[in-house]
Amino acid sequence: MGFAMLSPSYEGNGNMAAPQNQIEADFVIVGAGSAGCALAARLSEDPATRVILIEAGGDDTNRWIHIPLGFGKTFADPSVNWCYETEPDVGAAGRKVFWPRGKVLGGSSSINGMVYIRGQAEDFDHWRQLGCTGWSFADVLPYFKRAEHQVRGADEFHGTGGPLCVSDVPDHHPICEAFIAGAMALGYERNDDFNGARQDGVGYHQTTTRNGRRCSTAVGYLRPVMQRPNLRVVTEALSERIELAGRRATGIVFSRHGETWTARAGREVILCSGAVNSPQLLMLSGIGPQEPLSGFGIPVVHALPGVGQSLQDHYSAPIKLKARLPITVNDVMLSNVRKVQEGLKYYLFRNGALATISSPAALFIRTRPELASPDVKISISPFSADRPQDGLHKWSGFTTIAYQLRPESRGEIRLKSANPADPPAMIPNYLSEETDRRAIVDGLKTARQILAGPHLAPFIASEYLPGPAVQSDEELLDYARQRGGTVYHPTSTCKMGIDPMAVVGPDLRVHGIAGLRVADASVMPTVVSGNTNAATIMIGEKCADLVREDLRAAA
Ligand SMILES: Cc1cc2nc3c(=O)[nH]c(=O)nc-3n(C[C@H](O)[C@H](O)[C@H](O)COP(=O)(O)OP(=O)(O)OC[C@H]3O[C@@H](n4cnc5c(N)ncnc54)[C@H](O)[C@@H]3O)c2cc1C
Q1: Would you say the CB of residue 108 lies under 6 angstroms from ligand 1?
Q2: What does the DSSP assignment read for 333-398?
Q3: How far is the CA of 285 from the centre of ligand 1 (A)?
């Protein structure tokens, strides 16, 4: 059960839709993830504003959530993870690609790789150019800063005192050091702040951790405000549809422990259910592309063709190395003595193998000289696995991965059934555009160049994947299709904008429906050039201000 639950006064004993199965607030938020926790915490700062936050998952008590290396343990754990998979995707050689998403307080911020990257200033300026007034880099920077507690201190780009703690990686692993030196030897500049003046170059990531423990949005935003009497968090509650009175959202119908409940919203319903489930909920409620909804017998309330469309994701391809020295995280996991040593080290100093995030260091490159900003990211991890959900290799290994930052391929989320408990179809269409195919091949080639240099050579026994037989561009592309995967950044399925495929406007209100907004990764007009958690939290922060401006205007 969640660390807050339905208060006893709200516990009903009736069955379907009995009056006692109703709760009410000014705002009903669906999804306690990266955006939802930030939004709920900000809106409930005003004691006069009553907020209900509905979350399908449970409390974040699983201890692996809070230990950085525990990322591997929650990666495919259905008790905290939706464990989705895509439809067979032609771009991924016909494979279904595993899509973990958080199903727990904190959402995907409770199971993600903890890399803190905002994207490029150019991303947000591009959003503004697409018609999203108020979303240029200058507009959104204050929200990134407001969210942040930067352990290095405040400056032009960073804030302190915010709920999201941003820390440096505690250890400089020799393999990461060699990767950085190897990239610099090829002419790439050192960059100690990818979220500063420029993203280009090589260096260590910063992380969403505090004192060596994960700082999810549940930890940073929600826990400190859980006792507010005007905030009610309802866990283990699956939202099934938006309750509508004509074209106005009036609440959310959800099921909890076999009972059906309604959460009525005096002012607004705000979907923060993520890039898979926000479009699903809209479609289940009759808001979306007309034909498929009718096909499932769902009455169309408002035909909005862009719902579920414009899906973007970062598709990556790995290079996996067998290591020459027993210094990788794999080696720690192979030895009981070392596991105990590392456990103690973590307990005492909050560093060592257990404090390792998904990829401690990275290089941002421009694969073509005419580009205005990096288009490919190559990151390094001092461990290796065939599939993360199967555990680390039983031999000493490490990994680099390359992915294109601004994919041009577009996919979609479609309903598979009218049952809210069934996952929708995820159709990413990976590598369907030539730019994307070329970029991933160029990324793999640059990674190999670094690996072939003198800095990493002492650490490499052999290239395990793709292996020396894979050399030509065609072979590398085929390998990327066969063995690549997502870096878990689906976005844009309820994209913000003013074009016919936009689902929300720059005020995050759903076009054509009153009292309804979406605020999560699904509203990004285009995926940001990097990891998506920070930008999603920024969206939650900004949504709170948009709502408060409207409240002030109405007062
Ligand atoms: C394995 C993994 C690794 C990642 N690594 C990184 C990283 O290192 N750095 C980074 O920046 N980004 C990373 N990301 C991406 C980042 O975490 C996400 O983009 C971000 O968390 C998305 O936030 P969101 O608010 O859109 O959705 P989420 O955080 O996923 O929140 C949605 C919430 O809504 C709930 N929900 C969904 N449907 C319903 C329903 N019907 N009823 C009630 N509740 C519902 C879900 O359970 C969930 O809690 C990673 C993601 C994953 C999965």
Answers
A1: yes
A2: HT-HHHHHHHHHHHHHHS-SGGG--S-SEEEEE-SSTT-SS--EEEEEES--BSSGGG-B-SS-EE
A3: 22
Tell whether ligand 1 has an atom less than 6 A from the beta carbon of residue 68: no
- Pocket mutation for ligand 1, best pick of 533, 539, 541, 543 (most atoms within 8 Å of C-beta): 533
Nearest to 214 by CA among 166, 247, 260: 166
Residue nearest to atom 53 of ligand 1 (CA): 101
| pLDDT tens per residue across span 399-441 | 999 999 999 999 999 999 999 999 999 999 999 999 999 999 9
Closest residue CA from atom 35 of ligand 1:
31
The CATH architecture to which 8-60+217-311+492-554 belongs is: 3-Layer(bba) Sandwich (3.50)
CATH 3.30.560.10 fits 119-209+313-411+424-486, yes or no: yes
Neighbour count for residue 297 (Cβ, 10 Å): 7
Q: Position 322: which residue type?
A: K
Catalytic-residue membership of 393? no
Across 38-52, 379-393, 537-551, least confident range: 379-393
